[in-house]
Amino acid sequence: MTDIRFYQLQQKKLEHALPEILAKALERQHRVIVKTSNPERLQELDQSLWSYNPESFLPHSASRDEYTPEQPIWLTTEEDDPNQATALILVDGAISGAVNTVGLCCELFDGNDESAVLAARERWKVYKDQGHTLTYFQQDEAGKWQKK
Question: What's the CA gap between 138 and 148, in Å, rounded?
C-alpha cells in the first residue's frame, strides 16, 4: 500500500510549500510527479520552482523533450510518468490512478478553502477504505508542519 500524506496549507501558499516538500523528496532519492488539474496553474508552478530561491535549484520539467526521463521532478496535468516516479504530489484537487503504483503520495490542499477541505476529507475516506497508510500534517502559525 501507498504511504499517503495530507498537507493542509493554512499559512503558506502552495508556491512556497511545494518547493520545501519537493526538496525533502529529492533528499530521500524520490523521483516525483507533481500533478495539478489546471494547465494555467502548471505554468505558475513551473515558474515558481525556477525562482523560489536563488540559492537553490530543483531540477524539473513541465514539457517533454529528450531530457524529460532524466528529470527527477515532472510537472503535469496528465496521467503520465516519463521519469519513472516513486512519489506523487497532487495539488489543486488533482486525482491520479498512480496513487496505487508509487510508494509515497502527498496531497496538498488549501485549508482556508472549505470546498478543498471537504474534497480532501472525501479522498481521505477513499484512501482509508483502500487500506493505504494515512498521515495528516497541518501548518502552525509559523508555517511549520505539525503531524496531527
Answer: 7
For the stretch 19-25, contacts whose Cβ atoms lie closer than 8 Å and that sit 24 or more positions apart, written own/partner, are 19/48, 19/49, 19/52, 19/53, 19/56, 19/58, 21/89, 21/106, 21/108, 22/49, 22/58, 22/60, 22/73, 22/89, 23/56, 23/58, 25/87, 25/89, 25/104
Residue 21, all three cell numbers: 516538500
CATH number, position 77 = 3.40.50.10110
What are 68-108's pLDDT values in tens digits? 899 999 999 999 999 999 999 999 999 999 999 999 999 99
**In total, how many domains does the chain have?**
1
Edge to edge, the sheet with strand 32-35 lists 73-76, 32-35, 87-91, 104-110, 3-9, 133-139, 145-147
Domain enclosing residue 129, as ranges: 3-147
pLDDT digits (tens, 9 = 90+) for 105-120: 999 999 999 999 999 9
pTM: 0.94
CB 109 within 8 A of CB 6: yes
